[in-house]
Amino acid sequence: MKTQTIFTTVEKDLKILNQNLRSMVGARHPILNAASEHLFSAGGKRLRPALVILVARHTLGTQDVTASHRRLAEITEIIHTASLVHDDVIDECMTRRGVNTVHSLYNNKIAILAGDFLFAQSSWYLANLDNLSVVKTISKVITDFAEGEVRQGMVQFNSHISMSEYIEKSFYKTASLIAASCQGSAMLSNLNHSLQNKYYIYGKHIGLAFQIIDDMLDIIGSYSSLGKPIGSDLKNGNLTAPVLFTLVESSHLHYLIESEFENDTDIETAVKIICNGQGLKKAKDLAEEHIQAALSGLPQQSINNNDDNLYSLVMVGEYILQQIH
C-alpha cells in the first residue's frame, strides 16, 4: 500500500507543500541555499505534513483547509528535516533517502549550521502563525529532539536498557513531533481541549509505531528502500525494539554488543541472530499495539465528519505496517 494511495485526499496539498518548501528555506548564502535545496530534493514520505492536512480536513469538514494549516504542515516538515541533518552528523551517516548527507557533501560545520538555519526558519514561520498555543506545542518538540539525542547517546552499546527507556527515547526523537503537529492542526481548527488531546494521543502512538517499524527496517530492510546501509543504528550502538527483544533469548548478542562489534563480521552475525529469533515478530506486535492505541483514541466525530479523511487517518497504521513486507 503506497503513501500516495493512503494520502489521495491530500495529494494536491502535498504537491503545493513540495513547491513551497524550497521558497520557504531559501537562504541568502549560496552554501546554505545549496544544502537546503539538496535536502528537499531528496523527497521523503512526507508523513508528518500529510497528517497535519488530514487532521485539518477531517476536523474542518466542508470548510477549506486554512493557510495556517498549510503553513503548519510545512513547518512540521522543515523541523523534521532539520533534525535529520543533525542526526546524520551525530550518527556519521553518509547517505540519507538515497543521497549523500549534507555533512558528507560539505563538512560537519556546514551541516550543523544548515540544521540550525532550518530550525530558525521554522521558528520564524511558527511565530507568524499568531497562535500562541500552537507555538508552545510545536516549540516543545525541538527541546524533545535534543533530549532524545542525549538519552540515546548515554546508552549506546548498553545491552541492559529497558523497553520503557527505548519507548521514551523514541517518543522524544520521533513521536513528539507527530503528536504535536496533529494536536496543532486540531488547535488551528478551534477544537476543544479534549478533542485536541485525542489527536495528540493519536499522533503519539502513530509516531511510536512508525519508529518501531523503522527500527525493524534497519535490520531487515534494503539499501534501496532505506537509502542508508543496513544495520546503521545497530553499528552505532543504538539498541532498538527488535534488538532488545532478541537480547532476552541470546547471550551471544549481549557479548557482541558489549564488545561494540569489534570484529568486521560482528554486525552481520548480530543481524542473523536477530532475524533467526523472535525479536522482529515481537517488535511488530508492539507496533500493532501502538496502532490500535492510536485508533482507539481517534475521534470518530469532531466538528464535521469527513469519511474519506477519517479513513485515511485510520489506514495510516496499515501503511506503516506494510513497510516491512
From TrEMBL:
Highest taxon above the source species: Eukaryota
Keyword annotations of the record: Chloroplast, Isoprene biosynthesis, Magnesium, Metal-binding, Plastid, Transferase
Gene Ontology process terms (BP): isoprenoid biosynthetic process; quinone biosynthetic process
GO molecular function list: metal ion binding; prenyltransferase activity
Xref: InterPro entries: Isoprenoid_synthase_dom_sf, Polyprenyl_synt, Polyprenyl_synt_CS
Cofactor needs: Mg(2+)
Keyword hit for Plastid: yes
Flavoprotein recorded as keyword: no
PANTHER family noted in UniProt: ALL TRANS-POLYPRENYL-DIPHOSPHATE SYNTHASE PDSS1 (PTHR12001:SF69), GERANYLGERANYL PYROPHOSPHATE SYNTHASE (PTHR12001)
Family membership: Belongs to the FPP/GGPP synthase family.
NCBIfam families reported in the protein's UniProt record: prenyl_cyano
Protein name: Prenyl transferase
